Amino acid sequence: MPYAPLRHRFRRPLISVAAAATASLLAQPLVAQTANAEEDSILQEVTITAEDQLRQAVGVSTITAQDIENRPPANDLSELIRTMPGVNLTGASSTGAFGNQRQIDIRGMGPENTLILIDGKPVQSRSSSMMRRTGERNTRGDSNWVPASAVERIEVLRGPAAARYGSGAAGGVVNIVTKKPTDQLTGEATVYYRTPQEGNEGDSKRLGFNLAGPLAENLSFRLYGNVAKTDRDEPGINLGVGEQASPAAGREGVRNRDIDGLLRWDLTPDQVLEFEAGLSRQGSIYTGERFIQGALNPIQQQLTDSGAETNRTLRRTASVTHRGNWGDLGNSRVIFQYEDTNRRYINEGAAGSSEGAFTDPITWNNSELKNYYLNGEMYTPLNLGGMSHVLTTGVEYRKEKIKDPGSQNANPPAGFESSGTGKASADTWAVYLEDNIALSEALVLTPGVRLDHHDNFGSNWSPSLNATYQLNDQWSINGGVARAFKAPNIYQSNPEYWYTTMGNGCPIGISGPCYIQGNPDLKPETSINKEIGVAWNNHQGWDASLAFFDNDYKNKIVADMPNAAPDDYGTFRRFQWFNAGKAKVRGLEGSLNIPLLGNHGDTLKLFNNLTVMDQNKNKETGQPLSIIPKYTLNSTLDWRINDKFNTELTATVYGKQKPRTLGSRGQELTTEGRGSYALFGLRANYTINKNLRAGFGVENLGNKRLYRTANSESAGAASYNEPGRAYYFTLTGSF
Q1: How confident is the model at residue 564, as a pLDDT?
Q2: How many Å separate Cα 610 from the centre of its chain?
Q3: Helix and strand totals (H; E) in the chain
Q4: Which of 156, 395, 586, 611 could bridge to 61 as Cys pair (CB 3.0-4.6 Å)?
Q5: Are 208 and 184 in contact (CB under 8 A)?
Q6: CA separation, residue 537 to residues 15, 295, 544, 678 (Å)
Q7: Rounded to a whole number, what is the largest CA-CA distance in the chain?
Q8: Residue 371 CB coordination number (10 Å)
Q9: What is residue 626's predicted lDDT score, i.e. its pLDDT?
């Protein structure tokens, strides 16, 4: 999807502002090198107005480049995105396996229901990692493909408005917008170093650059690159914590290499072509994963001592984008993207072996995922029946192809044929229509509908209705309802997916071996997402919002053996992925920003947002969908001492986290939740001169450390490590 619609979703007092913001965002690349100073000023003013209104609006948040500079992430953008309302980091399920591989989870719908975009183009590289029977993937997610120094802003869209983005957006959308070509040659380089106070935690270092400018009268470019490394924790960081016989190790490390180039050709003042290509490599640095009787086994020890990478992901992209201004017909945008992901990983033991239980001798597998994406949209301003409209019409095509021999955890049982390649593919077509209608100066109504047709799972309708009512110049009410969906992923639906487990992994009372096979007869997961909120802004620096969201979720795809009857083949039992019953996700989001000093708080201001999860569970089993805090409070005290020097004091408070009480085999679990805790940080940034900036800070001031006690569902909520106090320094030079 294009980035523009994310900017004009909710909370604009007049349709004229929405239309102007949309038009300016679409037109800006077209006129960047041709518009006169007066036109540039108008466009900039309208764009900034729209962005300020949406910074912490109901259902929408924007992280700016200045925010990233003030609070730089050590490596992954998810470290910053998690501070937005409604956002947390969780594993892909509530079992605890791969607990330190936490990903962006919006409104408790899980990482698989969070759609990641880069410049409006979907990112699906995490889908190259096999989904285990309890829903986990051994993946870091898709939020670490763009270095922090290359980001212009990050837009986070939550709630019913996300439904128009199709499969996988039921929770919300994160759009990472990169820096664009400029009309003058500019360059920037950033170095970052972070060192933990505790010697058994890994440090981080990165170097990134951006270069942009004109090549000819109508030709410009942008190039960014990045080299980064976060070291692993010491393997024994969790030893002696809790009463687990086989505790997991700490956080693995990661090596990043990124380079991306964009070439923009202004064909005319109203028509532009952009060609982009990128290459990224991520390698996970092994940290031991699992201890037996206080020690690693020989294979794990060998991998740990050598600093080995146990999986390496290579992501290659190429895209072409056309933007056009067609006068009274409006503006258009057409994107074609090819995304190729190759993941090389060490085979983990079969027969239900635990996370990190590698085979002896070590063997490798390759997963190859190819995604083709074509999308076209038209934005047309209309005046019908005396009312102003901004009509969006779109068409989309996606093709996904995978080959992963490792998805056959073991050879299929006798009587079942398989190519042994793990090949599968899926095609999806979609058309959608959305209209921003100004019914009056105060009321904006946004009806929409999207039709997706999946070649394996048929057609799916996603209607939506959102509205904004401006009570007066300070108060507005926002509401929406939408039907969202998620198609079965390419592993769950592939009959060549085979996962096997012996007696220890079968349901209680059933002897092994037990097999799980992909199921081509699945139904898409669906949810009815509802939201209502109120926003207040007194135009003196005070503003607040409060939203209630309620999602009714059904047909969640699971392979929980106790809830399904196996096919009995005598010598083995076969299970399949299936559609489970209903689930409920419900909660509150709020924000309150308080000016303390200066004009509208421009010297000292307190920013706050709060998320409260009331329900997040399977209605039939009562089990949580993911391990998520009962509440999350983020606060930032921003002190702009002068034009050159500013500081931030940050605090995040996490509420209690509820674990599973029923295991995937049907066994009762005696597990403990994770209690509430708080993290504090102190940061400062200083502009040395117009070409040099420095930043430094302390994270986790109170040195509140949390430990992972095991690598399975018996860990309860203690499925991840929270690192202790750390110090960082960053320096940016530019011209």
Answers
A1: 75
A2: 19
A3: 6, 35
A4: 156
A5: no
A6: 18, 58, 7, 29
A7: 80
A8: 22
A9: 85
**pLDDT attached to residue 466:** 94
Residue 179 DSSP one-character state: P
Calpha distance 454→522 (Å, rounded): 12
Q: What pLDDT is attached to residue 496?
A: 86
Closest CA to 462 of 406, 529, 514, 508: 529
pLDDT tens-place string over residues 47-97: 333 344 444 457 899 999 999 999 999 999 999 999 999 999 988 777 777
DSSP 3-state of 620: coil
Share of the chain above pLDDT 90, in %: 63
Beta bridge partners of 478: 468, 533
Whole-number pLDDT of residue 711: 65
Q: Tell me the backbone φ, ψ of residue 15, rounded to 5 degrees.
A: -65, -30
Q: Whose CA is closest to 491, among 136, 131, 140?
A: 131
Tokens of 481: 């309802």
**What global pTM score does this model have?**
0.91
Closest C-alpha to 462, from 431, 485, 440: 485
Q: What is the pLDDT of residue 354?
A: 59
Residue found by looking up tokens 């060998």 in the block: 302
Chain position carrying tokens 């170093």: 193
3-state secondary structure of 501: strand
Helices in 35-103 by DSSP H: which ranges? 37-54, 65-70, 78-81
| Closest-CA residue to 206 (of 196, 187, 191) | 191
Helix, strand, coil % in the chain, rounded to nearest 5: 10, 50, 40
**Stretches in the chain below the pLDDT threshold 70:** 1-57, 242-246, 289-294, 349-357, 359, 409-410, 502-504, 710-715
Contact 260, 224 (CB under 8 A): yes
CA 294 – CA 296 distance, rounded (Å) = 7
Both structure tokens of 681: 């940080």
The residue type found at 286 is Y
Q: What is the 3-state secondary structure (H, E, C) of 626-694?
A: CCCECEEEEEEEEEECCCCEEEEEEEEEECCECCCCECCCCCECCCCCECCEEEEEEEEEEEEECCEEE
Secondary structure in 3-state letters for 341-410: EEEEEECECCCCCCCCCECCCCCEEEEEEEEEEEEEEEEEEEEECCEEEEEEEEEEEEEEEEECHHHECC
Q: What is the total residue count of the chain?
A: 735
